[in-house]
Amino acid sequence: MSLKNQFTDFITELQNSICSGLEELEPETKFRSDFWERDGGGGGHTRVVSDGKVWEKGGVNISEVHGELPELIRQRFNVAQGWFHAAGISLVIHPRNPFVPTVHANYRYFELYDEKNGEPVDAWFGGGADLTPYYLFDEDARHFHQTHKNACDKISEQLYPKYKQDCDSYFFNAHRGEARGIGGIFYDYHRTDKNFSLNDWFDLAQSCGNAFLDAYLPIAKNRMDTIYQDAHRYWQEIRRGRYVEFNLIHDRGTLFGLKTNGRVESILMSLPPRVRWDYDYNPEDGSQEAKLLDVLKNPKNWLE
Amino acid sequence: MSLKNQFTDFITELQNSICSGLEELEPETKFRSDFWERDGGGGGHTRVVSDGKVWEKGGVNISEVHGELPELIRQRFNVAQGWFHAAGISLVIHPRNPFVPTVHANYRYFELYDEKNGEPVDAWFGGGADLTPYYLFDEDARHFHQTHKNACDKISEQLYPKYKQDCDSYFFNAHRGEARGIGGIFYDYHRTDKNFSLNDWFDLAQSCGNAFLDAYLPIAKNRMDTIYQDAHRYWQEIRRGRYVEFNLIHDRGTLFGLKTNGRVESILMSLPPRVRWDYDYNPEDGSQEAKLLDVLKNPKNWLE
Fold this sequence. Notes:
Largest interface: A-B, 30 and 30 residues
Largest sheet of chain A: 7 strands, antiparallel
Radius of gyration of chain A: 19 Å
Order of helices and strands of chain A: HEEEHEEEHHEEEHHHHEH
Number of strands of chain A: 10
Oligomer: homodimer
């Protein structure tokens, strides 16, 4: 079976297992399904949870789109004509309890062709996962990073240190000089090279994708019944505003999707359910909120 | 007195009169003041209202900045070196009551120099005002447009029709195929030409800026005591999400400010206080909410 078909099978199964895993912690609701088609070819399966007791809002989406290269991609790769195949899984989960972190993960595979139905002339993988806590628990950050490091190490021990740095650099609100969260892993444009084959990168996507529930569910389970006050919720909503700022101002995937006529509701499922912007909001010195901000401004190596 | 000094005097007085006018409707709070300085030269005066009974959040900001051209402007104008002076007033008001529309206005003047302290080699005005209702009252839309048309007509009757179209085109959430609100006026890069002098454009800024309170306050006063339910507030928060999307994805001024190290809190004071994103939220057919959406997807000429 072709790599692209293997990858599509993988993300289809992963979507199922992640939704099932998340539903196990949620007593009040289930994920709903929306299937959609893309005019130029392909489509997707969006699964969304809303208004749960544990999951206030979340989406676990897969898509497999193909066809002629959109104008914007032709410009970016400086080609006059071409066809593409792109598939991926993308998830963002916004828990209700401010002590449970928001989480994001995405694994994607891209093929480029000179001719319709031809052999790929270029192909690459990208992916990553990152955690956005509202209150910082060092052991949660370490667990999330360690689980992803273990998943990367199965392919090569060289990978995690670089991916950790790239994650801190990418998920960064440059206009505020602070990271979106406490990071994780991020990689892109992984082609065949002298050390790794495309099959290695597919193994990496599988290893990391399959590690998602182990990385996140124990944290959520451990924090989801923590008693919280209005002030914790207030801070969560303020910080969710920073999440929106990153996704709409800086995130390449979001902006690319919106500019190439992607399905708006599937792309913007990543936005938090309730958000707050106050003018010049600053937490008290020495508070738990200030402690989080300090780490976002000075990212840590969690596994040292 | 130089045009740039006259303009700075104008926006300083306008900020005062607009804040005073808005405070007259607000029984519970006043605008607070933050003065700030810019590292490269100049600074601003940010005035913000928060948590009022009538004004849930709002800012009326002026700034006057100057110095060497930032890298990003040099690229945009394709010049190797240069100095600039930029001054403007920018306001966004988010009322609490969903029947009172959000409003935005901005008037700005820019000078460009080849030499430090030299004569301007280029100079232009820009500006506009637009209204974003959550519930549509045709008479409010007509009043806002008519007041601004009258202000434009004092300079020339040719102006309003073009500015109205340009406003609809500019304040447009292309990714959703809908306008941000019901428009108003918008113009940019107004230099001396065969029909108008820079002094004419200064007159235009004054005429429109001074019309702001007449255009907006009667609408706010008329709607601010309307009884509303949770469902009206819900819709307001959903629509505020679209306001955020426009400002962070599409608004040139916001993105330019953030990318040239503008003062983040003054720029992002435009974001609404409380916002909501639901997956695939659609109002009921035939509802007041659907009626608004229909007009946003098919902008109207309010004065015909």
